[in-house]
Hints:
alpha+beta
Amino acid sequence: MKRFILFMMAVAFTVASASAQQADSGTATDTTDKVAATAELDTKKKDKSQRFLPTTRRIDRGVDKNKFVYRGEVMLGLAASYGTMDAADADLMLLVDDINFGLNRLAIMPYVAYAYRDNHSIGLRFGYEMLRGDLDNINLDLGAGSDLSFGLGGIGLENESFSWSLFHRNYMGLDRRGIVGVILESELLVRTGTSSFYMMSDGEKNLSNSRNFAARLNFNPGLAVYVFPEVCVTVTVGIGGLYYNNVRQEDLLGEVVGRRDRSGLKFKFNVADIQIGIVAHLWNKKKK
Length: 288
């Protein structure tokens, strides 16, 4: 009987030890699996953060590190130009004789802009341009060895136009003090105006009028320099973009006798579209 009791106690102890070892093994396995899954998830997150896709992440080039315009600034600007040209400015005296002409051009463009972010602003611009030219007389004579010679006179052109535009500017400071900066401007412009062209014939003036309409998407890079703490001078140059032009030719009674439409995409350095202006920065919030 005693041997039987000892045998049963040994069997119970063996079964209890085996159950405890199995439970410990299961707990260790679960812990190991959890650690492995956590490590795998961290590896995937790390690989995903290190992987670069242009459509999901951008490279920080630090272009906004040097601030030229601060958020909250209101800018009032003005660009104007006036020029004249006459026979004394022409370098064609060896080819033409008895030349008499004149050309006047006036353009004024005030605008207002607001900086909604550091180095980013949006604004409205109004423009007025007047062009007037007169050719009273010009004679062309290529010499005795050539049979080509002719004369013109009594020709004139007058053009007056108004424009409205919405523009956006990005600034990039070139120095840490924020004195010199680069301007990247995109502009949506609408222009309307009238043109008059006349030519004298047999003592009578033949007049032709036209109404002009233009819509453009322009790109105007430039440079800005602070000459005073709150005032800077800007120079921008038009390099072209998308355009649409409409010209309606009218007679003396106002009836449309002809029409021309033209659209396209053109990029070029336009010397005639250089704008020099002065800008006052109001409510300045520059950091000390």
